[in-house]
Amino acid sequence: MRLPFVFILGTVMIDAMGIGLVLPIMPQLIVEVQGGSLANAAIWGGVLSTAFAAMQFLFGPVLGNLSDAYGRRRVMLVSLFVMALDYIVMAVAGSIWLLLIGRLVGGITAATHSTAAAFMADVSKPHEKAANFGLLGAAFGLGFVLGPILGGILAEFGTRAPFWAAAGLSALGCLLGFLVMPETVKDENRRPFRWRRAHPARALLAIAELPGIRPLLWVYFLYSVSIYVYPAIWAYFTLERFGWSPQMIGLSLGMYGLAMAAVQGGLIRPATRILGERVTIIVGMAFEIFSYVLLAFLTNGLIVLLLIPITALGAVVTPALQAMMSRATPDSQQGELQGVLAALHALSMIVSPLVMTGVFAYFIGPDTPFYLPGAPFLLALVLMGLGLALFMRPAHART
Questions:
Q1: Angle at the Cα of 276 from the Cα atoms of 134 and 293, rounded to 5 degrees
Q2: CB atoms within 10 A of CB 330
Q3: From 154's CA, which of 1, 131, 138, 160 has a CA 20 to 30 Å away?
Q4: Among 99, 105, 49, 109, which Cα is nearest to 350's?
C-alpha cells in the first residue's frame, strides 16, 4: 500500500502546489487582463475564487457519491486529467471572462482532496484516522511550501508561467495514479449512485442525520469560512500593508505551508493522543483567534513572518474534526461524508472571498472612515469565536 499512499499524498500536494503557484501573481495578472486598481483586482480575485468554490460546492457531493459507487481510482484520474487541461486554458487566457471559465472548470475537478480523504478513510483503522487525515493536511502544507515559492520564482518569466507548471504537475499526477493506485471500494461497501443523494443539500441532510454529526458540520463550516481569510486576502493585504513583492508573498505562503505541514504531519498524532480530539480542536481554534488579533493591527512585516509558526498551530483543527465525523459515519458513506465536507468547505470559499475582499477593499478605499487593511482578520475572529462557542457547548445542547 506504500506506493498508493505516495500517490494520494502526492496528489494532494500537487493540488496545493497548483493553487499556490498562481497565488503570488493573481493581483498582477488580473490588472494585466482587466486593468484598474489593486482594490478592483481584489474584488475580481474574490469573484474568481467564488466561482471556483461554487463549482466545488455543487460537484463535491457528486464526486463523493460517484467515488462510493464507481471507486476512488476512476474519480481521481479523470479529475487530474481535466485539471491539467484547465490550467493550459488559463495559461493562454487573454480576458477576465476566460479566466472565469477556467476557474469554473477547475472548481469541478478540484474535488480530488475529498476523494483522497475517502481513500484514507477506507484504509485506516478508527484510531489511525486523525493521524492519516493529518498526513493529508501535511501534504497540502508541503504543496503550499513549494507552490508559492516556485510561483514567485516563475513570476520572473511572466504571469503565465505558473499555469504551465501547474498543468505539468497535474498531468504527472494523473500518470502516476494510473500506474500505482488500486481501488479501495469493495463490493460489499459499494453504494449505488443516485442523483438525488448527489445534490449538495440532500447529501448534507443525509450526513447530518447521523448521530452527533450535525453540530460538528456547523463548526467545520464556521471554521472554514474564518480560516479562508488567508488565501482570500493575503496577497492583497501584504502588498498593501507591507509593499511585498510576488517573491516575498510566495516566500511567506511557503513558510506558512511548511509550518502547517509540520503541525499536521508531526503534531496532530501526539496532540490527539495526549489531549484528545476535543481539547485539540479547542486549543487550535484559540490559537487562530490569537493570531487574528495580532494580524489585524501589526504594521511590521518581519513580525508577521515570525508569527507564522504560531498561526499554523490552528491547523490541528481540520484533521481532528474529520476524524470525529469519520468515525461516526458508516463505511458505505465515507465518500459521501467527504463530499459533504468538500461542499461545506467550498461554500465557505464562496462566502469568504467575496466578504473578505469586500471588507479589505472598503477599509483601504477613499471613502473608508478609517484605514485598516487588517479588518478582514477581525471578521474572521468573530466567526472563529462563534464556532468555538458552539463546539464547547454541552453535547446535549449541540444536538
A1: 70
A2: 11
A3: 138
A4: 49
Task: List, as one string, the DSSP characters of 153-196.
Answer: HHGGG-TTHHHHHHHHHHHHHHHHHHHHPPP---GGG-----HH
pLDDT in tens, 381-395: 999 999 999 998 865
State residue 399's pLDDT score: 44
Q: What is the pLDDT of residues 123-139, one digit of tens each?
A: 777 777 767 777 777 77
Q: CA dist 367 to 27, 362, 363, Å?
A: 22, 7, 8
DSSP label of 125: -
Domains (ranges, CATH) in the chain?
2-181+209-398 (1.20.1250.20)
Q: To the nearest 10°, the Cα dihedral for 151, 78, 221, 87?
A: 30
pLDDT one-digit tens code per residue, 298-351: 888 888 888 888 888 888 888 888 888 888 777 777 777 877 887 787 788 778
Instruction: Decide: 277 and 324 in contact? Cβ < 8 Å.
Output: yes
Distance of alpha carbon 290 from alpha carbon 269, whole angstroms? 23
Cα 251 from Cα 153, distance rounded (Å): 10
Amino acid at 219: V
- CA–CA separation, 71 and 89 (whole Å): 28
- Residue pair 246/152 in contact by the 8 Å Cβ criterion: yes
